Amino acid sequence: xxxxxxxxSALLALLLPEAGGARARQxxxxxGGLPGYTSxxxxxxxxxxxxxxxxxxxxxxxxxxxxxxxxxxxESALGVVWPDPEVLSDARRLVPELGLRxxxxxxxxxxxxxxxxxxxxxxxxxxxxxNEAAQAAGLALPW
Length: 143
Hints:
Blueprint: E1 4-6, H1 8-15, H2 21-30, E2 36-39, H3 42-56, H4 61-77, E3 79-81, H5 85-98, H6 102-117, E4 122-124, H7 128-136
Parallel strand pairs: 1-2, 1-4, 2-3
């Protein structure tokens, strides 16, 4: 089975009650767990999501500690794509080309790097706008 590139939104849905969480969990089960890849930036974005939820009161410090432990397991199960000059250049091009936020451009550039080495790779995100951009950037979606 081709690898899956996991965007932050799909990984967060595995940990938190998120819309689309069932789709992300089903995808993980179909793939026998979490084989695949994500960006070096994903876990920074996840920390930002935890902090937002903590500030708004929908997450407790105790729950956040458990989430971080689960996130560490996820991180160790995935290959992390680190930026090199080509990934950064691709991300810079994607910002104006597809009207992306910098973080989303980094995710897509990282996913495109994975797809270069495995053309069957799919891009898992629960962000519909990002999914549209991923398809425009030549990436396949699992759903």
